[in-house]
User: Fold these one by one.
Assistant:
Number 1:
Amino acid sequence: MTITLSTSGEQDVTHKQQTELASRLKQLREARGMSQQALAITAGLSVSIVARMEQGVKEDPRLSTLLKLGQALDVGVGDLLMTPRPKRKQKRKGK
């Protein structure tokens, strides 16, 4: 996933990335048993920002917003932006 920062500090995010971020944010929030309101309060954001991001409506989230969400969810920004890939079984050499 490639995300570039603009000079205003905002990110240029494609529609696919925006959809993945929305899904991942909701997944992480629900896994921690948090409501949108609880996440917003913990992150110091408005409930509408959290809701819009989960709906994929909020375009180009600021890096500072992603950092606050990551901190509130106890994950890094990279964890918000990337869906974890399933672990592959490693083949042993010589067998």
Note: The first strand starts at residue 4 and ends at 5.
Number 2:
Amino acid sequence: MRPEAYRHIILALWLAWALYWLISALSNKATARRESLASRLSYVLPALVAAVLIGGRHFHWAWLDARLWPSSSAPDPMPTCATRSTPA
């Protein structure tokens, strides 16, 4: 499968989730108490910055493409650690 196909599949899954979320939100009760703007921005802004950095293909910042560690033929330990740390 071509890499563009994966990008389209992931986009379609996100859009399906967003549509489901919007439809589900219509049938919920109104909010009893609203949070302050400062409280909401304290987690919305970092999430927005993360989304732009992860999904923003039109940005080209060389420092984001830099490798933190040199390339190696050894297997990456992070997936192994993540797999081992999950409960069986």
Note: The helical segments are 3-26, 37-55, 62-65, 77-85.
Number 3:
Amino acid sequence: MIGALLNVKIRGLIVIFAIEPSEMAALFAFVSTWIWFVVLGVLLAGPVSYWWRLRRMRRKRAALQRSEWMVETEDSPAKRLGPAGQDEGLFTSHP
């Protein structure tokens, strides 16, 4: 639906500028086009707000899972530790 509206509006502007490429045509295009930006904003507000809320809830769910189940993150210090929970750097030979 949004694509069809934009397509019709853009084709209409192309026809206007093909027939009369002047400052008056540009003024007419601006005056008749600004309201479509409002319409486009209203039509896109629903999907954008849904996407924003979905991202926010997924982030919140991941944080809750990490805090409740103590799920390790990728940069967790526990992954750098050896099998006994000790730093592997302790067992390397030093010259």
Note: The mean pLDDT is 78.
Number 4:
Amino acid sequence: MKAFLYVLSIENAVSEMIEHEIARKVKDLPGPSKRKVLAYIETLEKEDEAKKGQKGALSFAWEGCLASSSKNKTAIDLQHAILEWH
């Protein structure tokens, strides 16, 4: 457990150093370049959000596909119909 906390502590320190270095470099940039950096950061944030949305997200695009054919059919009948689609 101590080793894990030590590694976590190191990762946090490195992350803080990187954030400080980014802030220092951005501070020295002219205005138009700062806007480009901000736009790039926003792009990265959108990409990260999209990746989060893809992980483990369930899709119910199939919902209702069997509605018209499911009347008076058993679950086994529906399973056979699904296998025919593949």
Note: The chain has a mean pLDDT of 82.
